[in-house]
Write a structure and sequence with these properties.
5-stranded parallel β-sheet; Ribose 5-phosphate Isomerase B, Chain: A; alpha/beta; single chain; 7 helices
């Protein structure tokens, strides 16, 4: 992935914590523009809103990718995947992030707040950002999802 000011990441979280601040710091250090979603700015704590809003920014083309964070990571992933054009993946470790990008062309990274190991989360975010979507046998599945839209 090219790291420059032309890449924009939608970012949403149910709560501001040291971990979320570290994720934002990584994005800034790597040169990404950040679009904070409304529910995140309002600290709504609602994982359904955070996941949906991050996914909508990506699906509508306002952002290249998104990162959504809730207590388990699963809630924002479920909510994001209800938005047509979003392919959210809950990735608790770097290998999961690489596979989600390479095989599934994930465009929304779902992370958990608790319990979370800050070093693992940082490595996971960096791995996800640095992995380009792959080619080959998984392309047919990705195209199938894209043609089906939301369910």
């Amino acid at each position: 992935m090219i790291h420059n000011n032309s890449m924009k990441v939608a970012f949403g979280t149910v709560a501001e914590t040291a971990l979320t601040k570290n994720v934002v710091k990584i994005l800034v250090q790597l040169g990404y523009q950040i679009q904070f979603v409304k529910s995140s700015a309002q600290n709504s704590g609602n994982w359904a809103d955070v996941g949906r809003e991050v996914a909508e920014e990506v699906a509508q083309g306002n952002c290249n990718m998104g990162i959504a964070i809730c207590w388990t990571g699963n809630g924002v992933s479920i909510a994001a995947n209800r938005v047509g054009g979003a392919r959210a993946a809950f990735c608790p470790a770097p290998r999961d992030a690489i596979d989600a990008r390479r095989w599934h062309h994930s465009n929304v990274l779902a992370l958990r707040l608790k319990p979370a190991n800050s070093a693992v989360t940082k490595a996971t975010v960096k791995a996800w950002l640095r992995t380009d979507p792959g080619e080959g046998k998984h392309q047919a599945s990705v195209r199938k999802l894209e043609s089906q839209g939301s369910y």
